Amino acid sequence: MSYFKALAYKIKQILGGIKMKKLFISIFIFFSPAAVLMGITPEEILERMLENQVHDTARIEGKMIIQDRFGKKTVTFVSWSRGEDNALIEFTSKYEAGQKILRNEDELYLYFPDAEEVIRLQGAALRQSVLGSDFSYEDMTGEKDLLDSYKVTLLGSEEVDGHDCYKLQLEAVSRNVPYPREILWVDKELFIYRKVHKFSLSGRLLKEMRITRFTRQNGKVIPVELLMEDKMKKNSSTEFIIQKIEIGIPIPEEKFSLRELTW
Amino acid sequence: MRFLISLAWKNLSRYRKRTIITASAIAVGIGIYIFFDAWLLGAELDSERNLIWYETSSIRIMDSQYWEEQERLPLDRVVENPEVVIKMVEEMNIPAVPRIRFGGEVIFYKDPYEQDGGVPVQFIAIDPERDDRVFPMKQTLESGKYLKSGKMEIMIGSWFAEDIGAEVGYPLTIVTRTRDGFFQTIDVEIAGIINCPNPMINNGTIFIPMDVANNYLQMEGGVTEMDMSLPLQADVEKTAQHIEERLEEKGINNLVAKTWKDLAQDYLAIAVQKRAGSNIMLLLVFIIAAVGVSNTMLMAIYERVRELGMMRALGMKDSQIRIAFILEAGGIGFIGSVAGTIFGSLIVYLFSTLGIDYSWIFKNMNVGYRLTGVMYTVWNPEVVITAFIVGIVISMLIAYIPTRRALKMQITDCLRNE
Amino acid sequence: MITLREVKKNYQAGETIVKALRGVSLDVDQGEFLSIAGPSGSGKTTLLNLIGCIDKADSGVIKIDKEDVDKLDKNELALFRRRKLGFVFQTFNLIPVLTAKENVAFALHLLNLSKNEIEERTMSLLKEVGLEGMEDRLPSRLSGGQQQRVAIARALVKKPAIVLADEPTANLDSDTGRAILELMEEMNKKHTTTFIFSTHDQMVMEFAHRLVQLHDGQITKDERRN
Q1: Nearest CA in chain C to B407
Q2: Is the overall model pTM greater than 0.80, yes or no?
């Protein structure tokens, strides 16, 4: 059963216009009997998971519900993205209206409409949290480097919320990532992560991320509800909810320019 | 001239009440000014000492890039061979110690604390065996023990402890980042609580042993700073320059030596502002003296118009009459200055031994001064003498105007005056 | 030693100009005991003030002791008064914070004399005016007559050429006034100092050796007696 699903998935991928490297690896894996017999490699699991998260183009409307010991705050936004490298987020809720974040590869810019100021965040400044949530600017720029920055090991299988998952361990090989170790539970059927644990260097669980809802579009399985919990503090969490997502829509080049940022 | 002085002095007793009131106003103004200045001086001297002894040390050596970015407490701009530098400095007969400064959060939980919480703090990793060569913090230990190398424990300030409800033996978890940027957690226990006269330390700084920090932060022997101790009034700029020259001679070109003045710009800015406030006070004293004396002299002159006419008729020159009145005003100023100086000096003496307890202010506000509790006044003889002289001089100068007006009158009109 | 020629003096009294002296000419010799009499508003005080160099004439010549005083400036006039003129006022005008002795000595301090000389002359004159033993009293502890004696002593102690007295007995009872006039007459004889006093009191006029009467700014009578 899963074999046919995989086949259908592959065809859709090819039609969707993916990168050549991934295409090649995917085809190889698909046609490699050895891989089919042995099972899937941890790198591949990760790859396929990432593919679900990275889109050629996407427009998202969503919100973040930020909870800490002082209370709850809801922030709404609209975002446009292209591939792994470009994203523009514009906040639309009352107190944050007009604030924007622009990402182009490794560059990150913030725009504050009240001050009419554009700030570039670099280095340690990226460690700051986005609007007090459990996500940092670092989190926004780092994900794409997973395969380069971490060594992946398959620890086995485990059930999460009644779903059978691959349990992957990521150990940092690069010194440029915030979490030296992560554990991912990747749904065996859908190739989305159900749960992620992020650890400190001395092994303490710092954050837990869970996907609570997903949707399908253009042959992809897309997480639309995420819960990120700070495990060090009680009552500290951020819910990330995608209310509307459109993939593959045309987005003009200038959308990700600095000029667009100040508009 | 002598008889003019004698005449002026005798005239002062003519309007005893008025003279006393005016002189009292001058005395109060001068007394308050002397006290205020002594109080400020005390605050400044104490602050400087607390700054140097507990916060900045006299001179700090760090990587030049670190100096540019010190706000963010970077761990990637380190001094790689601290012992080489320390040895060099000690050859100059200056005690020096290494420290690692980093930022992070402390997390604590209900039980044993009153509630859960997380607070951003500044951490300083110290070498427990050596640190007191430069920072006399051991003497400020209020409860518990001083740090020991190798132990997973920390020291915190008493105000901070009070804020979070911590006691000796309580656990804390530090969340921070390593030198490379990895998230790191360190579980520690509170070994000691210090009550340091410097509020910056008492409020938001946590001390941890150097070897523990080195290990957990993956510092690989690097430190963020080396601190040096010199006598309080030493010429720190000159020594810092000397140190930089010696470093260059040894081929170490990436380090800079900053004095406590470079490191405590915020304190210096406030000290200057407060001094300006003191000068405004002096101006107010001038004004009190001027207004009081001017009024008194005006009344005195207009009551003696006929007498003035008589003196002029007798052949006294206008200039002599002017001098007589100026001396009289100077006499009032003199009485006021003497009384004010004694009054001010008494208050200064009182508070130099008793002090005023301001801890409730320092705890809740950052007033810039590095003081936690009691403020003492300090003698400043220069200011006392200045205030004394100013009281007399202003009084004399001010008398000039009403005298001038009176002398413009015709002698005959003066004599006709009732 | 005093010469006045066509001396005029006007005052501004509100909107009107008052002609106090309308061209007065007068000669006074050394040692004269002279009274200037007249009703109030006659100009006698003005005349006294001009001779006393405490006011300036609008026109005319005033010569005192060969000095053209109308040509002197403020400071020169002060010096002139200091050396040559003595004053006795109706209201005594003693300095209340100085003793009798100090009040008399005041005039001598202005002349920069030595301490010894000041002491000597002061005590001598106080004795002459009959105040020996009261030199350390403040004016508040002296009677009107005694205060005027001090004033006379003060006027004479510097050996002036002229003593000017404006209504010297106006604030004294008749007996005391008489005693003061007798004292002044005695001093005039003894020191040959010229005495000029202004008055509208009949008794005072009778004492004068020469009576100059003023009316409406002009001399109407100039009479020598004895």
Answers
A1: C74
A2: no
